[in-house]
Amino acid sequence: GAGVSQSPSNKVTEKGKDVELRCDPISGHTALYWYRQRLGQGLEFLIYFQGNSAPDKSGLPSDRFSAERTGESVSTLTIQRTQQEDSAVYLCASSLAGGIDYGYTFGSGTRLTVV
Amino acid sequence: KNEVEQSPQNLTAQEGEFITINCSYSVGISALHWLQQHPGGGIVSLFMLSSGKKKHGRLIATINIQEKHSSLHITASHPRDSAVYICAVSSTNYGGSQGNLIFGKGTKLSVKP
């Protein structure tokens, strides 16, 4: 596609429920990143996929968070047993290749509210 | 101390003013990025640079690798430039797959008409 697409754009969920967030990167972009931005805070790295390599999960804040990517296409970020502190905008970005000197294209984000 | 520091945190300017936002970092980097985050939350990548200077329209980004410092300049500022400007670095020090950008906390710019 023309840009990075994320869905849903907004999600309100009850505490304790599981949620799935989706990211469609730009076609041909081998690298895909998930970030989180809590209200009034900066961007936090969550996870990074590069091609068929093992993902870098070092930013995931707890074992309630997991992410998958099918080949070099769609990625889903799953949050199990959501907590109020999970409320944030979840941003996905992709780049032509990973970790080096390639520009990033960000999606519009998913605003998650846990009530 | 944060690895990427931006200044100022907040900046209010009158339309037409020349604006400078600064970014200092303390890690080795392969590239530095300037991002623009609009009030609605969308993020746009403005520049990626590893040396020298880049210009796009009214925006200019410079980097001094020796001093570990970058600046983003906006000439003839306009209210539509109002946004949060974020500096981020691709660190060579990162003990992992280098998938991680290290972000500054952002500079909130407000340009008044």
List the topology elements:
The complex is a heterodimer of chains A (115) and B (113).
Chain A: E1 5-7, E2 10-13, E3 19-24, E4 31-37, E5 43-50, E6 65-69, E7 75-79, E8 88-95, E9 105-106, E10 110-114
Parallel strand pairs in A: 2-10
Antiparallel strand pairs in A: 1-3, 3-7, 4-5, 4-8, 6-7, 8-9, 8-10
Chain B: E1 4-7, E2 10-14, E3 19-25, E4 29-37, E5 43-49, E6 52-56, E7 59-64, E8 69-74, E9 83-91, E10 101-103, E11 107-112
Parallel strand pairs in B: 2-11
Antiparallel strand pairs in B: 1-3, 3-8, 4-5, 4-9, 6-7, 7-8, 9-10, 9-11
Low-confidence segments of chain A, given as residue ranges, are: none
Helix and strand element order of chain B? EEEEEEEEEEE
User: What is the straight-line distance between the termini of chain A?
Assistant: 33 Å
Helix content of chain B: under 10%
Query: Terminal Cα separation of chain B, in Å?
Result: 36 Å
Q: Approximately what portion of the residues of chain A adopt beta-strand conformation? A: over 45%
Helicity range of the residues of chain A? under 10%
| Rg calc of chain A | 13 Å
The rounded Rg of chain B comes to: 14 Å
Structural class, from secondary structure content of chain B? mainly beta
- Main interface by residue count: A-B, 29 and 25 residues
Principal-axis shape of chain B = globular
